[in-house]
Design a protein that fits this description.
heterotetramer; A mainly alpha; B mainly alpha; C mainly alpha; D alpha/beta; A: mainly alpha; Cytochrome-c3 Hydrogenase, chain B; 3-stranded antiparallel beta sheet; 6 strands; globular; D: alpha/beta; Beta Polymerase, domain 2; 2 domains; 5-stranded mixed beta sheet; 5 helices
Chain lengths: ~375, ~350, ~170, ~220
């Protein structure tokens, strides 16, 4: 009956809640999103190209710069891929420490997520609470490897250093603190009426649709698909750990929230098991002096806090750098779902959805 | 001469200055309270415990560059912050801070004026404040402010209905539109209207949050969605005026809530005789304490709750608050008629 | 004396802003002048001692209705190219005729008012209430009950119409 | 076309000797080493079904470090993918990655386009590999796995592989007006800085003239 114009709203790349330099071009009918074009690449540094010109060890610190809120996970993923190429057996102690670091990293990453996600929806206090606890994890990492953000904390074949004395005790202390803090976040959000109204039924995606869209990690599990690389294709010491994979039912923003909140607890459980059962022994396996994997290619995936983090690496067997280095960034593939998720919702929901996909632009753009 | 000109002028000067100082310190209070809620310290550098922070803020805002976007509607862009600030200050003319007191051998009322349609005056002047936000959004010639101003105007108009309806039930109780008479009515009926009209009180408070654009209804300036909303394009002192207007409005809402529902300057429980020893406390102290309580709750809510979505806010306003306010009004009317 | 000065000042402002409302090019400015106009009309009411009416004038017209005008004006893009102003459907003669008719009507009322003074139907003596708020209420529910009810019916119809128009699928 | 499940030596990829077309520098690898599976290893169950359903779909099977790789002819990619997604014992519903590798001197075509597939139901993986010439288009698999949308855009952006039937074939990481395809092996790692940013075409010309000078 009426001739109405659609409003084109350019959200980002400079916008408080696009988590970095994401740009979303929204076509709006009133405040309703008709279509969304997600534009990325503002943080592209050519890590894949760079890696083809660095030697195998130097690449570890490039991987730090991808998902910079979960650098240790990236390190583990890369080192395991190279170990797979070279068929290096990693000692058990190193595997356990890797598991601890990965799970601490997952907690730190989820802390950042819960803080920013809640902030996007307007609950500012959770942000500061979550960062308070993330600080404790960063302290642990600082003690382990000297860095707080980009750790460079792995070596091919094992670890650069053994854990400092007393570190395991501190990790257990942290676990005790964190347990109570998770309840605190949940108290502020989980049963909050406004939180429920803002997240329930927002961005619903069914399990098969999520699989088809290539979602992985919590966004996929929120839709009820029990896919977790840690369980399905165990790496590090996950095959020796007892933990559950939480799944949602509705596949909406609230379920993705619940899944991550439960992952906090499961991660703590793994950290406890690994720290208490930490075996003695060497920390580096038998690694040749010159790292030069045989010719061949392989794909190896691990479960990063964001989803399936895969490395596809081709070695030509001749040179000391990879012939092709490819990362399957979980944030990239999850962000792809944003367009589908936000159609028909309001501008305010777009912000909530970006938060619930938990993307890190450093990883999306590489 | 003194009674008709000097004293009112003096009162205006005092109230205006006190308000402006209170507004700047509200900013500090908010930062402090939220900081404590978030287990941090808040401003600590300027003066002991950051007590001089508002002064520093004011200096900073005044010497900042005042940017007018090239394609903005210049006159309207300049007028908008003023339009939002002035009504917020005019309202203080009818707010009764206390009854008559003797000062320097002279009978002085602790309010600037008491007009017989005081409450209506507040509502109507406050309704003009919407223009500041709408015009800011329009004049900036930018999409985020435009969206924000549309949200703001829709929000303010809808919640005004609910708030005004609750005011009507108070007016029915008091039988007057004058702010002073409403307090006196609470005194003579020996009851705060918060207890006589709990529903109206709740609706008024929620509506007050929405009308001052405070969390959880701060859609028009939702930073995470609209990058600051209607004042996205503003800077320097013009931005500060919007900022101050918001806090001035908070104080207005708190004062009105105090006057209408918490007995204004009356001591707690005016119906309980043995508490009469509290009378030694000056009446205006009670008023300020009660207003402060509201302000504190405003800040507390901001630190705790997430933000509503725009359509949910409208739904709450139209489908919950307005019907409830009307029902409350009808019940009040029936009770009033039956008791008479 | 002071009252007379105030009256003429306010009246001059009202007329001045009214002219600006129709003469300004920018529609948003035009609406803003309308708001100013309403504010001065409210001032006139205060001068007459009708504070209630003044407050209602601001609340309803300035604070409510014109906001909606502004809404519409802001959203509908009225910046048309200049050639659009030479609208072929424009009926200049008809406009002048209508304006003339209004002028004649106003003149007639003015002359009638001057020639037949003191026909003021003030039922003040019959009113059992005092104070202008109460008096307005009394008049609305006694002498003007039927017009009042008709007006509210009209508003209800308008509201339903607006909902039907705005809602795309019912 | 071979149809026996345990593949013997295949005429493609690894079997081909280094193409003499234009070999720029020494020690440039000419192709991946796709080793055939050991004779005593049984191939995965879905392979036989795939070869029965889509004859000629598997040009070569390779197994290394626990990963199965199928080399698929470009023309049969869509059918193969369709079968792999819908086949009961394949059920590869999750396309976890699409990427490419550049082998400039190779005769059969310079690109390997690689699809990493995973089945969320059966929890197994497989890699598909398509060998592609520089100007040769490839059918997009977005109709089968919507997940491939952005991944294929990235392959296009980085390697210049032209996907046909892609709903939205634009550059994704690089700017819209970028010249060249950065992940190709002949794309330089370092550019001359500002000239490249401001006027890439001039820069390319400059580089060509330099190369010319080198040859002479």
């Amino acid at each position: 009956m009426f001739d109405t114009n659609e409003l084109v709203l350019n959200m980002g790349p400079q916008h408080p809640s696009t988590h970095g330099v994401l740009r979303v071009i929204l076509r709006l009918d009133g405040e309703k999103v008709v279509d969304a074009d997600v534009v990325i690449g503002y943080l592209h540094r050519g890590i894949e190209k760079l890696s083809e010109n660095r030697n195998w060890t130097q690449i570890i610190l490039l991987t730090d710069r991808m998902d910079y809120v979960a650098a240790a996970t990236n390190n583990v993923g890369y080192c395991e891929t190279v170990e797979k190429l070279m068929s290096i057996e990693v000692p058990r102690r190193a595997k356990y420490v890797r598991t601890i670091l990965c799970e601490l990293q997952r907690i730190a990453s989820h802390c950042l997520w819960v803080g920013t996600h809640a902030m996007d929806i307007g609950a500012m206090t959770v942000f500061l609470y979550a960062f308070r606890e993330r600080e404790l994890i960063l302290d642990l990492f600082e003690e382990f490897c000297g860095a707080r953000l980009t750790y460079n904390s792995m070596r091919i074949g094992g670890l650069p250093l053994d854990i400092p004395p007393g570190w395991d005790k501190k990790v257990l202390e942290f676990c005790a603190i964190m347990d109570a803090k998770i309840d605190e976040y949940e108290e502020l959000l989980t049963h909050n009426r406004i939180w429920l109204e803002r997240t329930k039924g927002i961005g619903v995606i069914s399990g098969p649709a999520a699989v088809a869209l290539g979602l992985s990690g919590p966004p996929l599990r929120g839709s009820g698909v029990p896919r977790d690389v840690r369980k399905d294709e165990p790496y590090a010491a996950y095959d020796e750990m007892q933990f559950d994979v939480p799944v949602g039912t509705a596949g909406d923003t609230y379920d993705r929230y619940l899944v991550r909140m439960e992952e906090f607890r499961q991660s703590l459980r793994i950290v406890r098991q690994a720290t208490e059962g930490l075996p003695e022994g060497p920390i580096v396996g038998k690694v040749p002096r010159l790292i030069k994997p045989p010719a061949g290619e392989t794909y190896h995936a691990i479960e990063s806090p964001k989803g399936e983090l895969g490395y596809f690496i081709v070695s030509d067997g001749k040179s000391t750098n990879p012939y092709r280095f490819r990362v399957r960034p979980p944030s990239f593939c999850n962000l792809q779902g944003l367009r589908t998720l936000c159609k028909g919702h309001l501008v305010a929901d777009v912000v909530a959805l970006i938060g619930s996909l938990d993307v890190v632009l450093g990883e999306v753009d590489r | 001469m003194i009674d008709t000109l000097v004293i009112p002028l003096l009162k205006i000067v005092i109230v205006l200055n006190a308000t402006l100082v209170a507004v700047t310190y509200m900013v500090l209070l908010e930062r402090k309270v939220i900081a404590w809620a978030q287990s941090r310290l808040g401003p600590m550098r300027v003066g002991p415990y950051g007590i001089l922070q508002p002064v520093a803020d004011a200096i900073k805002l005044m010497i900042k560059e005042d940017i007018t976007p090239v394609r903005a509607d210049k006159w309207v862009f300049t007028a908008a912050p003023i339009i939002s600030m002035v009504p917020a200050l005019i309202v203080y003319a009818v707010i009764p801070f206390g009854p008559e007191v003797r000062l320097f051998g002279r009978q002085v009322t602790l309010y600037i004026t008491d007009i017989n349609v005081g409450l209506l005056f507040i509502v109507s002047v406050a309704s003009v404040g919407v223009y500041g936000i709408i015009l800011a959004g329009y004049a900036s010639n930018s999409k985020y402010p435009l969206l924000a101003s549309l949200r703001a105007s829709a929000q303010l108009i809808s919640y005004e209905v609910a708030v005004t309806l609750t005011l009507v039930s108070v007016i029915m109780m008091a039988g007057s539109l004058s702010m002073v008479s409403i307090v006196r009515a609470q005194e003579s009926q020996r009851m705060w209207y918060a207890f006589a009209q709990p529903l109206a009180f709740a609706i008024f408070f929620i509506g007050g949050l929405a009308e001052t654009n405070r969390a959880p209804f701060d859609m028009p300036e939702a930073e995470q969605e609209l990058t600051g909303g209607f004042h996205t394009e503003y800077s320097g002192m013009r931005f500060a005026l919007f900022f101050l207007a918001e806090y001035a409005n908070m104080i207005v809402v708190s004062s009105v809530a105090t006057t209408l529902f918490l007995g204004g300057w009356l001591r707690p429980f005016p119906n309980v005789a043995f508490l009469s020893f509290l009378d030694f406390v000056p009446s205006w102290t009670w008023f300020l304490l009660k207003s402060f309580f509201f302000l504190y709750v405003f800040i507390w809510i901001r630190a705790t709750l997430p933000r509503y979505r725009y359509d949910q806010l409208m739904r709450l306003g139209w489908k919950v608050l307005i019907p409830l306010a009307i029902a409350n009004l009808v019940v009040t009317g029936i009770v009033k008629v039956m008791l008479l | 004396m002071a009252q007379a000065i105030a009256f003429y000042f306010i009246a001059a402002c009202i007329l001045g802003f009214a002219v600006l409302v129709v003469s300004t090019k920018d529609t948003v400015h035009s609406v803003l002048f309308l708001v100013l106009d309403f504010l001065f009309v409210a001032a006139l009411y205060v001068l007459l001692g009708a504070e209630f009416l003044a407050a209602i004038q601001i609340l309803v017209y300035a604070g409510g209705i014109v906001v909606l005008y502004l809404f519409v004006v802001m959203l509908v893009n009225l910046k048309r190219p200049p050639e659009a102003h030479s609208d072929p459907h424009r009926r200049t003669m008809l406009g002048f005729l209508l304006a003339g008719a209004v002028l004649v009507e106003v003149g007639a009322i003015a002359i009638y008012g001057f020639s037949q003074p003191a026909m003021v139907p003030v039922p003040g003596a019959a009113m059992p209430v005092t104070g202008n708020t109460a008096q307005i209420g009394w008049l609305l529910y006694t002498s003007y009950l039927i017009p009042f009810e008709i007006a509210s019916m009209l508003l209800l119809v308008a509201m339903i119409g607006a909902i039907v128009l705005a809602k795309r699928e019912l | 076309m071979a149809d026996a499940p345990p593949p013997s030596d295949k005429p493609t990829a690894s079997a081909a000797p280094a193409a003499p077309a234009h070999v720029p520098k020494a020690a440039v690898p000419t192709g991946p080493s796709d080793p055939p599976p050991p004779a005593d290893l049984a191939p995965p169950a879905f392979l036989a079904a795939l070869q029965a359903a889509v004859p000629g779909s598997v040009a070569h099977v390779s197994y290394w470090l626990g990963d199965w790789t199928l080399v698929v002819p470009a023309a049969l990619l869509l059918q193969t993918a369709q079968h792999l997604r819908d086949g009961a014992d394949a059920a590869f519903d999750f396309c976890s990655d699409v990427t490419a590798t550049d082998w400039p001197p190779r005769a059969e075509g310079r690109f390997d386009v690689i699809y990493c597939l995973y089945s969320t139901r059966l929890r197994h993986r497989v890699r598909l590999k398509v060998i592609l010439g520089e100007q040769q288009p490839l059918a997009s698999v977005t109709s089968i796995w919507p997940a491939a949308d952005w991944l294929e855009r990235e392959v296009y952006d980085m390697f210049g592989v032209g996907f046909t039937g892609h709903p939205d074939r634009r550059r994704i990481l690089m700017p819209e007006d970028w010249q060249g395809f950065p992940q190709r092996k002949d794309y330089p790692l370092e550019g001359p800085g500002e000239l490249l940013m401001e006027n890439p075409i001039d820069w390319l010309k400059l580089r060509q003239s330099r190369d010319q000078a080198d040859i002479e």
